[in-house]
Specification:
The protein is α/β, with parallel strands linked by helices. Helix content is about 45%, strand content about 20%. The chain has a seven-stranded mixed β-sheet with strand order 3-2-1-4-5-7-6, with helices on both faces. It is globular, with a radius of gyration of 19 Å.
Length: about 230
């Protein structure tokens, strides 16, 4: 009997440790597992990204930045729309950067896309460089959300738009399950829809809009740099 209890305890500990390791990879993918996860995100976040970008009129010659670009599938979609423009991607994970570069190898070679490693806290771009900045499933992990939003505002052109897309927010469906994972396991920022609106407005964005898909638990927040 004691052996059975010990075995179950050990197996439970192993499972919890493995689950925690996978969860932490969501924050910053690394190594072979991180590369696999970044590739999986290209598939898993596809429908969410398409929904979030609905109604964003992307012009062919726009310059666009995708912050926290992950595996690079959003970059690929944006580059297809900005067919004569340029799309930049940035992520602080070297594993994500490697996958994003592989995903977009053709358009990178054509000079229409670049992907680099870096932080949202210090974006390596000049002021007023982009017509559109996107952030898909990433803002939870930013080190200082208010400050980082102001950094995004800096690199937007006057009148340029920021679109934040996510599949978790405080008050969403199954919040009882998401809340402890986001706060305790991931140490992530977890805001209500109203708090997202407030933090964008406080950072200096105008025309702030927040919408959600209640059945899927998705949200999209957007705002503009004042003209």
């Amino acid at each position: 009997m004691m052996f059975v209890i010990v075995r179950r305890t050990v197996l439970s500990a192993i499972c919890l440790t493995a689950a925690y390791g996978v969860m932490r990879q969501c924050r910053k993918p690394s190594g072979w597992l991180g590369r696999r996860l970044a590739g999986a995100m290209n598939i898993g976040h596809g429908a969410l990204t398409l929904w979030g970008l609905e109604g964003v009129p992307i012009q062919a010659d726009w310059r666009i930045l995708d912050v926290g670009c992950g595996g690079g599938q959003t970059i690929r979609r944006l580059a297809a729309k900005a067919s004569t423009g340029h799309v930049s991607g940035i992520d602080y994970s070297d594993a994500s950067v490697a996958v994003a570069r592989r995903t977009n190898a053709g358009v990178i070679e054509a000079g229409r896309v670049d992907v680099q490693q870096g932080s949202v806290s210090h974006l390596p771009y000049p002021d007023a460089a982009f017509d559109l900045v996107t952030a898909v499933e990433t803002h939870y992990y930013w080190p200082d959300l208010p400050s980082n939003l102001r950094e995004i505002l800096r690199v937007l052109k006057p009148g340029g738009r920021f679109v934040l897309i996510a599949e978790a927010f405080k008050g969403r469906r199954a919040d009882w399950l998401y809340a402890p994972v986001m706060r305790l396991l991931l140490s992530a920022t977890y805001l209500t829809l109203a708090e997202h609106r407030q933090v964008l407005a406080a950072a200096g964005f105008t025309d702030v809009e927040v919408r959600s898909n209640a059945s899927r638990g998705w949200m999209c927040a957007s705002g503009r740099r004042p003209a």
